[in-house]
Amino acid sequence: MIPPEPIPVTLLTGFLGSGKTTVLNQIVRQLPRTAILMNEFGEVALDHQLLQEMEGPLALLSGGCVCCTISGSLSPTLKNLWMARDRGDIPAFERVVIETTGIADPVPVLDNLLHDNWVRARFRLDGVVATVDALVGMGQLDEHAEAVKQVAVADRLLLTKTDLAPAATTAALRERLAALNPAADILTVTHGALDPAAIQNLGLWNAATRTLEVARWLKPERYRQAVAGRLGGKPRTALHDSRIEAFSVLIDTPLDRYGLQSALSMLTAFRAENLLRFKAIVNLKGEALPVVLHGVQHVLYPEVQLDAWPDDDRRSRFVFIVRDLEPQFVAKLLADFSGAARIPDPATP
Ligand SMILES: Nc1nc2c(ncn2[C@@H]2O[C@H](COP(=O)(O)OP(=O)(O)OP(=O)(O)O)[C@@H](O)[C@H]2O)c(=O)[nH]1
Fold first, then answer.
1. Can you give the pTM of this predicted structure?
2. pLDDT, tens digit, for every residue of 274-284?
3. Which CATH superfamily groups domain 7-203?
4. For atom 13 of ligand 1, which residue has the closest CA?
């Protein structure tokens, strides 16, 4: 049976040893009815006293959570989990947390969640949470592109091990994280102690308020603004990662739908490696209500039509996090395509 509302899925990422499992153990204790998906039981040291029964790839945890290893790719695992829930073989979990291994690229997981129709009818991505080690995170960001990507695609950052790191190191890391991903709030989590609300309702849809919360999700005011041809204003913080840019593009006039689609297709198809993330609320020519767009590299999330503008601002507002891509180029591409391209005349083939 298809549920009235898809089950929220949280993707928990973070570099090797950054504290994912420690956070997971807290989640399991505080949020009963959670299904945890992981690569292997052995790989993630979930507290053994929590493991009650194990059967095949499934384990029941005391307190009502269930644990499942990912066999092969994500979609069949989610399907099996769903079937077991439907048959009543396991407790009716209300959320899923997927723990990726330390260096896993989160993008294929997002791809899987968004492009399998069966999965999409039953599960929705709530958000991406990334743990960052306060003591060694700076070096990991310097050395590993995956660590930077994990931070860039996250909706929330959990700064771990601040008890071990000098205050100045933590402050510098916070500044760097804010520059890499301005919209993601950074929470300090020591030994995994966190309010479960910290990892829930992070996406556009807030299940707690039952509303689409565009302003909370987009936060364009935290980005410096790029305009076609030049980059306006000073960066809010010093940008150590010179190849990474986080910026917003604001466009006053309503945009041509087909032109915008072309511009975004060019970015997602030909510049996927450079496009770490974008989000937007868009005013389309001839349409009274805005649409919300969201993409990660080549993965475009389904368009969401809002039933009202969230505020008085009628401009299209885009926020981007890119690597090795000029903000001015992106701004110009959007402006040129969505202003210049004409809606095709249906009379001409
Ligand atoms: N002092 C301190 N230690 C922590 C904190 N968070 C986690 N740890 C320790 O850091 C080590 C690694 O934590 P894990 O939770 O296993 O990290 P992980 O990201 O799951 O590791 P991998 O699965 O190997 O990538 C463990 O020994 C934890 O006890 C913290 O806030 N402070």
1. 0.86
2. 998 899 999 99
3. P-loop containing nucleotide triphosphate hydrolases (3.40.50.300)
4. 19
